[in-house]
Amino acid sequence: MHNYGPADVWLQGDFITRGIVVFLALMSIASWVVILIKTMGLLRARAMSKVAYRAFWAASGFEAGIDALGAAIHNPYRQLALTAREANEQQSDAQQLLHGSMSNGEWVSRCLHNMLDEQLAQMQTGLAVLASIGSTAPFVGLFGTVWGIYHALMAIGISGQSSLDHVAGPVGESLIMTAAGLFVAIPAVLGYNALSRGNKGVGRKMVRFTHELHAYFVTGGKHRQEKKSTGMPAVELNHSRVKTA
Predict the structure, then answer these.
(1) Is 51 part of a structural domain of the chain?
(2) How many domains does the chain have?
(3) Residues 6 or more apart in contact with residue 38 via CB below 8 angstroms
(4) Which domain holds residue 134?
(5) Which of 41, 42, 48, 65 could cross-link 59 (Cys pair, CB 3.0–4.6 Å)?
(6) Any long-range contacts for 104-108 (C-beta under 8 Å, 24+ apart)?
(7) Cα–Cα dist 85/88, whole Å
(8) Using 50, 70 and 90 to split pLDDT, how confident is the model at 229?
(9) Per the confidence metrics, is the pTM higher than 0.90?
């Protein structure tokens, strides 16, 4: 068994075998680094989601809500809130610009959706690496398997006999390569699926938060600004149609 262990594959293998081993090792390291980094980011995003729904909308004002979200630059909810505020301010002073022809709701919605797309794209960063490793690692291991079988056939051809001691080494090398490819691919595939499900859950919360921000600035925020500027109490508007004779 000593002559057919994983360490002997490296010691007895040629440069192609060693190159495959190194390549699989690099793929495994890359997949685990991505899994760990994205898992930590997903946990932070879930914590930010709880703060956004508990502290932000419970704040006394919009600025207080932004402060409640924290000062983290990579907080997607803070970025969405700042984008909505800036879009609302830009629309108020943009009557002479091209986007000044758009209504306040359309401009705020456009800016929010652009920022939302950027945040969702950042959440997906790195998942393509896991998908690529999960799909290619078994074939890299299969290439090592084919190369080991080739060595077994060469050993049989050189010795002129198919005894076990001539083919056991190369066949064992090929089986180890197959196992190595699966060892790299399985965690990458499982990590990709788990992170994708987690990102979808956080993404749905970000979409809801975006809709709520849009509704705040188009309806609630506008009414609050009118109340503040006129100094009069807010009046509930009745949108029912009045029929005239």
Answers:
(1) yes
(2) 1
(3) 126, 127, 191, 195
(4) 2-230
(5) 65
(6) 104/217, 104/218, 104/222, 105/214, 105/217, 105/218, 108/84, 108/213, 108/214, 108/217, 108/218
(7) 5
(8) very low
(9) no
